Amino acid sequence: MQRCGPKTGLLKIPYFPGPTGISFASALDLAIRISRAGCDRLIIDLRGNIGGSLGFARLASYLCPDRIPIVTA
What we know:
Structural class: alpha+beta
Number of helices: 2
Largest sheet: 3 strands, mixed
Distance between the termini: 20 Å
Strand content: 15-25%
Number of strands: 3
Helix content: 25-40%
Order of helices and strands: EEHEH
């Protein structure tokens, strides 16, 4: 995760590694925890990402109001 401004984080996800997305889910959870510590806003850059693994489902779960675990690490 990078900073775009004083309280804005940038999370670039060029691809979702692994068919099950377990390693991605762990890295995403860490990035979200870090962003919550110092950011009011988070930009998720998916440009060029073709999707395709359960890692996307984990990301989508963060965008839903009632987060339902899909992949557990």
